[in-house]
Amino acid sequence: MIHKTYKLQHNLLEKKHNRTIHTDMAPSAVIKVAALSGSLRKYSYNSGLIRAAIELSKGSIEGIEIDFIDISTLPMLNTDLEKNGTYPPLVEAFRNKILQADSVLFASPEYNYSLTAPLKNAIDRASRPQNVWANKAAAIVSAGGNFGGGRSHYHLRQVGVYTDLHFINKPEFYLKAFEPPAKFNDDGDLIDEEAKNMLKQVLLSLQTFTLRLQGKN
Ligand SMILES: Cc1cc2nc3c(=O)[nH]c(=O)nc-3n(C[C@H](O)[C@H](O)[C@H](O)COP(=O)(O)O)c2cc1C
């Protein structure tokens, strides 16, 4: 797929020189991002962050496709139930979605100073052989209490060591969800413009790092 920015630059060059330009500049790839929310709550703020990221990817950012992956139906891991390296169909479908993705966006609420059980279960599920997280770029965002859910990031980063995830370091995104002015509406949609802009910076950083890891920039 030809990247719109590339096409625009190319057209401008052609206009400037009044001739057809043949450049070696490769069009940027579109990256596929798997997005997971650690909260199963219907009006979850963290799920709201993912919906806001999807909106950005369809509007002001080019070259990113975000797929919101539901982890609520994944059964709790019990290795006794694994049959010759195969997994229940729901789990296989989930693992396949992660495998197909170029990178991962985690919206990670903080439960008791850590990541949530549903998110850890999902990570464990996809880490069973073959570990499908390996070599993927990742970013963490969160909304929560006084630290904005930030303490969950550090446990999640630790989990990413053995699973071979590569997290962007900056910018860090922790949103203090309960401090005025309201950051979310009653449906859990992000309504704070400053937070949306910061989220955009996270996505741009994830995009750059994903392409760098893949040797495409
Ligand atoms: C079991 C449990 C533990 C929690 N522990 C913390 C915590 O350690 N730090 C914090 O800031 N908020 C904590 N919270 C509050 C959540 O961060 C808050 O409910 C947040 O809105 C959850 O994200 P969500 O809106 O996406 O569901 C906890 C909530 C629950 C249910």
Q: What hetero molecules are bound to the protein chains?
A: flavin mononucleotide
Mean pLDDT level:
89
What would you call the structural class? Answer: alpha/beta
Instruction: Output the number of helix runs.
Output: 6
Q: Which regions have little confidence, pLDDT < 50, spanning 5+ residues? A: 1-27
- Which sequence of SSEs, written as H and E, runs from N to C? HEHEHEHEHEEH
Question: Biggest sheet, open or closed, and with what strands and sense?
Answer: 6 strands, parallel
Report the portion of residues in β strands.
5-15%
What is the CATH C-level name?
A: Alpha Beta
Count of beta strands? 6
Number of domains: 1
Helical amount among residues, as a percent range? 25-40%
| Net shape | globular
CATH topology: Rossmann fold
| CA(first)-CA(last) distance | 16 Å
Written account of the structure:
The structure is a single chain. By secondary structure, this protein is α/β, with parallel strands linked by helices. The chain has a single domain (31-74, 85-213), classed as Rossmann fold, CATH 3.40.50.360. The chain contains six helices and six strands; from the N terminus they run H-E-H-E-H-E-H-E-H-E-E-H. The protein has helices at residues 4-17, 45-58, 89-100, 117-127, 150-162, 193-213, and strands spanning 31-37, 64-69, 103-107, 137-144, 166-167, 173-176. Strand 3, helix 4 (117-127) and strand 4 (137-144) form a beta-alpha-beta unit. The chain is globular, with a radius of gyration of 19 Å. Flavin mononucleotide binds at residues 39, 41, 44-46, 109-113, 144-147, 149, 177.
